[in-house]
Amino acid sequence: MKNKTQNDPFKTHCWAFTVVTDPYQVFAECFVFTDIGSYRKTIRQVLLSAARNKVHKKESPASVLDLFKAIHSVMLAARALYRQNKTSELQLKPEQFMDKRLYTRPGAAFAEWEYLPKTLSKKEYQNPYLVFHRFFKYQNTEAWQQSMEQVLSNAFSGYASDHTLHLLNLYLHLTRLMEAAHLIDVREVLHVDGDLKPGPTC
């Protein structure tokens, strides 16, 4: 079991079908898997289902489980960067905040505003690594994993009796986690699996 954890430290093989050992490449794989808008939407819908006596039927269970596995991998990668005390090297001025290069890739499939973060503060937008500190201050990795498992269990069972889950807090923290990872991926990761990301044409 120990060797398996060491060989797949961020638990990517179960959803990406490849072992990723670089936390930044975990972010890259995550947003190749699907876009930030899909993560936001699924997190919101699953948490709403968990709060009601209603089975989640918006997406197939397999798709939701795979997406939450990807979120779990992002969480583990974020923990690695958090432990390294990583911080953004970009020095942003207020007039640069709407520069699309800060939040979306060239040739993005959707309207640029879809990629803008919806839940981050000004400071978090400038330095997304701040999100990781607040995420793990709220609760540790083990507690996060338990919360996510309970949310999925409630959402797919139509049983919403768990009064210990603070769903609004979970929504905000999980969404901020994914938005921060997205910004770091856009700003700092130049390649995915050794292939350069698409860039502007000359």
Describe the secondary-structure layout.
Elements: H1 2-7, H2 13-16, H3 23-33, H4 36-50, H5 61-83, H6 122-126, H7 129-138, H8 141-157, H9 167-188, E1 191-192, E2 195-196
Antiparallel strand pairs: 1-2
Helix pairs in contact: 3-5, 3-9, 4-5, 4-8, 4-9, 5-7, 5-8, 5-9, 7-9
Task: Give a quick summary of the entry.
The protein has 202 residues and is mostly helical. Helix content is 56%, strand content 2%. It has one domain (2-191).
How would you describe the overall organization of this protein?
- The chain is 56% helix and 2% strand.
- It is mainly alpha-helical.
- The protein has one domain.
- A two-stranded antiparallel ribbon has the order 1-2.
- Helix 3 crosses helix 9, helix 4 runs antiparallel to helix 9 and helix 5 (61-83) packs across helix 9.
- The radius of gyration is 17 Å and the shape is globular.
- The termini are far apart.
